[in-house]
Design goal:
The complex is a heterodimer of chains A (300) and B (174). By secondary structure, chain A is an alpha+beta fold. Helix content of chain A is 34%, strand content 24%. Chain B has 174 residues and is of the alpha+beta class. Chain B has 2 domains: 76 residues, Ubiquitin-like (UB roll); 79 residues, Orthogonal Bundle (DNA polymerase, domain 1), CATH 1.10.150.120. In chain B, strand 3 and strand 4 form a beta hairpin. Chain B is elongated. The chains are: A alpha+beta (300), B alpha+beta (174).
Chain lengths: 300, 174
């Protein structure tokens, strides 16, 4: 398909990229391009100049932070996340979620930064990043700031990014000891877009018997990943048993107004959110007990 | 390539041959391959990144060529379906597709072959599930995939028993 006439530039440095983005309202950063290219084909956005940030060293690579967390460059691809020994070692589930995004071709190009900045409600990575207390590191010509993942996703295809601002990396803090993460999706077919998802993180006490801290994040219930604070409050202090988790998750999404669309009604989503949340929490507990900081339970 | 412009000079190595062209910034890689270089083996199916008929290997990575700009590939090494056969001899994978009747209309075949080539390079002895996951990004509307999986499996087994080296055509060690 023929795209609209557009300029292309491959800046040699992050500063040069930020300068172009600051000076031109019609400049759009191009990373993996696995969504942007279709946007250009459909001509739903008008772009004057594509700023190719995919080869910038400042946006590449995964490094271990001093406190044991991860710093993930915005242009790290899903495939790199999947295959990263560092990611698998400390945040196993993050690699597993990346491994189940669409197909190999898209995983070879699509980036964690693009996945987040598009803020498509069906995207896989935002809910797990919120559950892991990730922090988005933003840069612009005039400075830098950090935004918690839970505050970054603002709405349907909307984020906290200001004009001229670029997501450069994502910091994922080390999980406390005896923690694990889980992720469950309701989808037709493996690796398909989900109708409802839940991501969870739990931390257990020394005896692995009680949940001391938790995150329950729902996706596709609202347009952005949403923490269910009430469910988290019920889980915190609860026994790490099937019955207790089932009871705590029975009220998931009860205080919310899930969206209705062609894929499912609001009430159906509410019911399925409870099931997905329970599965994600069960996985997280199993992972915490397994000492894996992730989960051995596969699946999307 | 520091200057912003609507056209750019691009030099790439395609199937072992170095080519330089001026490309429009808006030109997709698949059009560069098909229309500019005349390599029409790479097909356009959906043109939305869903069907995988346009799959090629760029710098060792399997990608959909309708989802990248030609300008982005400056300096890259590109492998297309035309590079699989060597001196008129089909690659073991191509031969296996023939033997196992792994195609009917053949439209998806170039993309399937590139995905299977990439898969076997990274995983020379895939399970059937890994084969199916490996071609998940490639849609075939004729075969029901069964014979495609059989064809890929046969090559991986052949290799496991010391037969043909599947990636010999692509010139890369497994």
């Amino acid at each position: 398909m023929l795209l609209e006439q557009v300029e292309y530039v491959r800046p040699q440095s992050l500063d040069e990229a930020l300068e172009i983005l600051a000076n031109d309202d019609g400049a759009a950063p191009l990373a993996g391009g696995q969504s942007l290219t279709n946007v250009l084909k459909n001509r739903v956005a008008s772009v004057d100049v594509l700023v190719d940030i995919s080869a910038l060293g400042d946006l590449a690579g995964i490094t271990r932070t001093a406190d044991g967390g991860l710093s993930i460059g915005a242009c790290v691809t899903y495939d790199e996340l999947d295959r990263s020994a560092e990611v698998r070692q400390s945040h196993w589930m993050l690699g597993e979620v990346a491994a189940h995004i669409e197909d190999q071709q898209i995983r070879n190009k699509g980036t964690i930064g693009g996945n987040c900045c598009l803020s498509d409600p069906t995207n896989n990575l935002p809910p797990i990043l919120v559950a892991l207390d990730a922090v988005m590191e933003l840069r612009s010509r005039s400075g830098r700031r950090s935004v918690e993942a839970a505050d970054f996703f603002k709405g349907y295809f909307a984020t906290a990014l200001e004009p001229g601002e670029l997501l450069v990396s994502i910091t994922v803090p080390q999980m406390p000891e005896r923690s694990g993460a889980g992720y469950a999706s309701l989808a037709v077919g493996a690796d398909a877009k989900a109708m409802v998802r839940a991501a969870a993180r739990v931390t257990l006490d020394r005896d692995h018997a009680t949940i001391v801290d938790s995150r329950v994040v729902l996706a596709r219930v609202a347009h952005v990943p949403t923490r269910d604070a009430e469910a988290e409050a019920r889980l915190n202090g609860a026994d790490a048993t099937d019955d207790a988790v089932r009871a705590a998750c029975a009220g998931v999404a009860d205080g919310m107004q899930p969206i209705t669309d062609v894929h499912g009604s609001s009430e159906y989503r509410r019911q399925m959110a409870k099931v997905m949340a329970r599965r994600a929490v069960d996985q997280a507990i199993a992972a915490a007990r397994g000492g894996r900081n992730g989960s051995s339970a596969g699946g999307n | 390539m520091g200057e912003r412009a609507t056209s750019h000079a691009v030099t790439v190595e395609v199937n072992g041959e170095k080519v330089s062209r001026i490309v429009a910034a808006r030109q997709l890689l698949v059009h560069f391959l098909r229309d500019t270089l005349g390599l029409t083996g790479t097909h356009i199916g959906c043109d939305t990144g869903n069907c995988g008929a346009c799959s090629v290997i760029v710098n060792g990575k399997l990608v959909k060529s309708c989802m990248i700009l030609a300008a982005q590939t400056d300096g890259a090494t590109i492998e297309t379906v035309e590079g699989l056969a060597q001196d008129g001899t089909l690659s073991p994978l191509q031969e296996s597709f023939h033997e196992h009747h792994a195609l009917q209309c053949g439209y998806c075949t170039p993309g399937m072959l590139m995905s299977a080539t990439y898969l076997l390079r990274h995983n020379p002895e895939p399970t059937d599930e890994e084969i199916r996951r490996g071609i998940r990004g490639n849609i075939c509307r004729c075969t029901g995939y069964v014979n495609i999986v059989k064809a890929i499996r046969a090559v991986s087994r052949r290799q496991a028993t010391g037969g043909h080296a599947v990636t010999a055509a692509a010139g890369e060690e497994v």
